[in-house]
Protein: SRPBCC domain-containing protein
Amino acid sequence: MGDPVSPQGSDNELLMVRDFPVSQRDVYEAWTTLSRATDWWGPEGFIVPADRVSIDGRVGGTYRACMVNTITGDELWWGGTLQELDPPNHLAMTQEWQAADGSAASAETLISVDLAAHDDGTRMTFRQGPFSDRRDIEGHQAGWNSSFDRLSRYLARHRSG
Structure:
């Protein structure tokens, strides 16, 4: 059920591995289908309203999204460019925090997601980096851990037959 595995990444990279009891296609589509991604993107306490997301779902296409804090209403925007799409095995995209006007508010990182069959389900290997310091890695790790917990619950509810 989205159990975390604890691998070791490089000093400036976040590496996370999760196992899900669903098909690679289910996990891939949760990442790449807008109506599915808005159901789990963002840590607990945040929502990603469908009207605050845009995705040009092709290699070279851009995406942009906004997480809204459900208590304070604060908005956190991010976006990037889709770099690689190999359904249902792999996807990669750049990511940067953005101001509301779309201007960059952080350094750009690369996110890669590899999906492989594993124990009657799928092993997701997630990488993001490079980061400038350990604190930034730890902040992203906390956010992604919470998001991946939400992804696990989403996949359990919407598993294909």
Q: What stands out?
A: The radius of gyration is 15 Å. The mean pLDDT is 92. Residues 5 and 29 are 22 Å apart (CA to CA).
